[in-house]
Structure formats: structure tokens, C-alpha cells
Amino acid sequence: MRIRSAGDGTIVKRPDGRYKAILRWNDAAGKEVSKTRLCETIRAANLALAEFKRIRDRGGDPRTTKTVADLVDSWLAIKTPQVSAATAEQYRYASQHIKMGLGSVALARLTIKQIDEFLHQKSAGGLSPRYVQLLRTVLLMALDQAIRWKLIDVNPGKHSTVIRQQRSQSKALTEEQASVFLTTASTDRLGVLWTVVLCLGLRRGEALALRWSDFDRKAKTLSITRNRKKEASKVVFGDLKTVNSKRVVRPAP
């Protein structure tokens, strides 16, 4: 005896009185997927069919039933301990945007078009190119992890539109402007700091991290060896931005 549900699966009553729930479909790659379960009652068989339909609707192949939100959460959990607090905060910020825009999409059904539309919406909504690019970068990293976990075979994000950032043209102060700046700074309680920053071309974090021990009075040199920055609610000292940033500033000949 067979009880059918309008093309949405089959329940077969076996000679031993049990029921067999069956649902077949083609996944995103066109491969046929079949799910079956033996149940003691017709009610249990209907519940099994409902479960199979949820698997099918969330991506088809059982190995890819995770959504984008599931992936981002799992990736974030293993990635944040590997990076600085400031970088982790950026990843969390990007992940929230990704989950709001693409979180409900099944990994197996995530397309390049969906990613492009998501990034375009963020850009049109006023998010700066820098942060839109951050969203794309984080999504790509999470999808690469999904490949390593064998949840998907390809990364659709790699072919999504790259967000171009406009490079701003830096403008140096003229000699007259620098003179006015230094004169004004001389009356400020941080005047010495402003003078050091301007005359030596230091980054803010580099200047704030300076110690008296960095200054060699005899050689008249200043060693730039560390950086001061804010991570979450704490001020911390750390490495410079690049290896080449570590340097010794000497007086002009």
C-alpha cells in the first residue's frame, strides 16, 4: 500500500506494518539525492518526509545543508583567536552584514549574482568602498574554509565583482603652512608631540609609543620600534605596521 503526497515524497506501508518514507530530488549540481527512513507509525513517516524536505530546501545535498550564516559563525569562531583584537572586531562587523544580507542562503545555492547584488546594495546604501571590500574579503575567506571543510566544491565569491577604492591624493603642507602649524603648536600642551610628528613624518601610533629610551642623546637618533593603538576598549602596544617600518631616524647631514 502506498500513500503519496502530491509529488512531494512517498510513504510505503511494508508487509511488517512499518512505514517507509522516501524523498528524491536533484541537487544544485544535477545529482540525484535520495533519502529514506523506516518508521513505526504513519505520523513518524510524515515527520521524516518533512525533515527531508527541509534538507532539500536548504541546499539539497546533505553535506551542504548549512546556510551562509552557519558557515560565517563557524569560521569566525576559529578565526578570531588567530588575529589581533582589532582585526577580530573588523571580522565580526563584516560578519554581521553578511549574515543580514546572505545568512539565510544555503551554501550549495549561493551564486555569484547573489554576492554581486549584496555588495551593490551595501555600496548603494552608503557603506564606503573600503568596508564593502572588507565584506567581500571576509566572505571569500569563509567560503575558502567551507571548501577545506568539504562543504562546497568551489568558491563563488572569487568571481564576484571587486570593489575598487578611490585612492586619495596626499597633500603635504607647504613651508609656510608648516611654519604656522609649528608656531601654533608651541602653545599647546602636546606641542612637542606635534613637532616630532611633523618634522619626522611619524604615524600617530608610532609617535604615541615613543619612550625616552628610544632617544639616543649622544648620537642624536630616535628609534622607531613599536606602535600604540586601541583594540576594543583597551590601549595596547604592539609591532609596527610592516617590518620595514622599524627604523632609526638620524639628523640630516
Proportion of residues in extended strands: 15-25%
Strand order in the sheet with the most strands = 1-2-3-4
Biggest sheet details: 4 strands, antiparallel
What is the average per-residue confidence, as pLDDT, rounded to a whole number?
84
Uncertain spans, ≥5 residues at pLDDT below 50? 1-7
Instruction: Write down the Rg.
Output: 29 Å
Number of helices: 8
> What is the β-strand count?
9
Order of helices and strands: EEEEHHHHHHHHEEEEE
Entry summary:
The protein is α+β, with helices and mostly antiparallel strands. The N terminus is likely disordered.
Describe the structure.
It contains 8 helices and 9 strands. The strands form 3 sheets. The chain has a 4-stranded antiparallel beta sheet with strand order 1-2-3-4, covered by helices on one side. The chain has 253 residues and is of the alpha+beta class. Helices cover 42% and strands 17% of the residues. Helix 2 packs across helix 5, helix 3 crosses helix 5 and helix 6 runs antiparallel to helix 7.
Keywords:
253 residues; alpha+beta; four-stranded antiparallel β-sheet; 9 strands; 42% helix; 17% strand; disordered N terminus
Compile the SSE list and pairings.
Layout lengths: L1 E3 L5 E4 L5 E8 L5 E8 L2 H16 L10 H12 L5 H18 L9 H13 L4 H20 L26 H11 L5 H10 L3 H5 L6 E2 L4 E4 L2 E5 L2 E5 L8 E3 L4
